[in-house]
Amino acid sequence: MKKISLLAFFLFACTLSTAAQTQSNTTPGPVWRVRVLPGKLNDVLMDMRKNLRPVYEEAKKQGIIVEYKIYTNQTQASPDDWNLALAVAYKNWGGIDDSTAKFNAISLKHYGSQEKVYAAAANRRQNYQGVAIKLLREQTLNPLP
C-alpha cells in the first residue's frame, strides 16, 4: 500500500514539475480548437468560403474568436486520413465556453432562418466528417535571462 501511495505522489510531483517548467520557459497564448476533416476537399473549401468565412469574420469583429486558419495535409497516410484541418483561436479557455450561443446568433443572421442553418449543416455532413477535435494551447518561448 505504501508503494502505491509513494508512486502516486511521485507521478503527481512529476506532473507539477513539468507544468512549472513549461510555465517558466513559455508564455501561454490563445487556445486553439482544431477540427480535423477528411472529405471532398473542393466542396468543403467552397462551403467554407461561402458560409463559414463570413461567420468567422463576424466572430472576429465581435471579439468571440482571435483568429481562424485552415491547414491542408500534404502527407496523407491513407485515403481515410484527414486532408483538411480547421483551427479556431479563442483568447482563453473561457472564450470557448461562452462561444456557442454567440456563434448561433451570427449563423442565424448569416443564413436568415433556423431551417437554412440546419440544411447547411446537413449538406456539410455529406461532404465531410470530423476525425478529431483537439484543444491546443499556443505557447511562445520566453527568451533566456
> How does the overall form come out from the CA principal axes?
flat
Quaternary structure classification: single chain
Mean pLDDT: 83
User: How many E-type strands?
Assistant: 4
Question: What characterizes the major β-sheet?
Answer: 4 strands, antiparallel
Percent strand: 15-25%
In words, what does this structure look like?
- By secondary structure, this protein is an alpha+beta fold.
- Helix content is 53%, strand content 24%.
- It is built from 5 helices and 4 strands; from the N terminus they run H-E-H-E-E-H-H-H-E.
- The chain has helices spanning 2-25, 41-61, 93-97, 99-111, 114-127, and strands at 26-37, 67-72, 84-90, 132-141.
- A 4-stranded antiparallel beta sheet has the order 2-3-1-4.
- Helix 2 packs across helix 4 (99-111).
- The protein starts with a helix and ends with a strand.
- 9% of the residues are buried.
Name some characteristics of this structure.
alpha+beta; four-stranded antiparallel β-sheet; 53% helix
How would you sum up this structure in a few lines?
53% of the residues lie in helices and 24% in strands.
